[in-house]
Amino acid sequence: MLACALCTSVLAAPLGTNTRTVLPAQIQQIVSVDYRILRNSSSGMALKNRVLPDNLKSFETSLKGIGVNPDTDVEQLTFVSYRTAKGTLRSFGVASGQFEPKKVVARFKLKKLKSEKYHDSDVWPASGNFMMTFLDDNTMLFGEMNAVKDGLDVRNGDVRGVASTPEMLQLVAEAESGPVWSVLDQLGTQNMLHSALGEASALADYDTVKKRLLGSLYTLDLQHGVDFGLNVQTSDSFTAGTLSALMKAGILYKRAAGTAIEKSAMDSMEVNSDGGRLVVKFKADDSKFQALLKSDLFQAVSH
């Protein structure tokens, strides 16, 4: 599930004000990464190196191309995936840190690159298919051109933003105090649990309950080993109880068929239901977690 959490998109403080201004209403997932926490955690770096998503790799490469060092200059990175009015899935990122915009723009001009004006923003070509613009001196919006324009349209008030979806805002408010966090809408939650449950998702019970999933959030604290918590919001206590039973069945299967490392990981996981919510907790020290990263179980889930 930790692998699914990072791979379904991507460690972090609350969202900055300027980040919130570009978030569309039809969000599927927000994943926030606190690079300061990541750099100071051996487990965080091991997780990042093991399952670094392609979009994060591409962004880091793009940043280096404009003279920004992601290992020292980036403080917070937020990935957003959302649906357009036509149902297409798009994504963009927002990075916060010490960027020195005047120097970045000077490098663009030195390379004879030209910006495109969109609303009040100068949008510059970065490496690959990425475009970027500064929301303020410490906040950068990046992604493919259509995605960057979508974010700027929200900022300009031309399309609805996340402020019009109280359900998503509530999930964000619950999650963003954690050093690592993500929120998912209904469809994103269905996909995440389908991957996390593995063989157990093939049971008829899951097809029955997945339509009653409303959203989810997870937090990951890497400051003292690994402390992972997942909360899945459902329509009723019966659905939460059924999901809990399915998850426990999957754990029993892995305890019986897994390696010694995998069995130890299952022993570190707690699954319960609390009213209309499924609650999953996993806690391990750095050595146990890093051993789990090398297991067949982790490889199967993360791919």
Keywords:
303 residues; alpha+beta; 12-stranded antiparallel sheet; 12 strands; 27% strand; globular
What report would you give on this structure?
This protein has helices spanning 2-7, 17-20, 35-39, 42-51, 54-65, 101-110, 145-156, 166-175, 186-197, 204-209, 237-257, 260-267, 286-293, 296-302, and strands at residues 27-34, 74-83, 89-97, 116-118, 121-125, 131-136, 139-143, 180-184, 213-221, 226-234, 269-274, 277-284. It is an alpha+beta fold and 303 residues long. A hairpin with a 2-residue loop joins strand 11 and strand 12. Helix 4 (42-51) packs parallel to helix 13 and helix 12 packs across helix 13. The longest helix is centred in the C-terminal third of the chain and has 21 residues, at 237-257. The radius of gyration is 20 Å and the shape is globular. Residues 6-12 have low confidence and may be disordered.
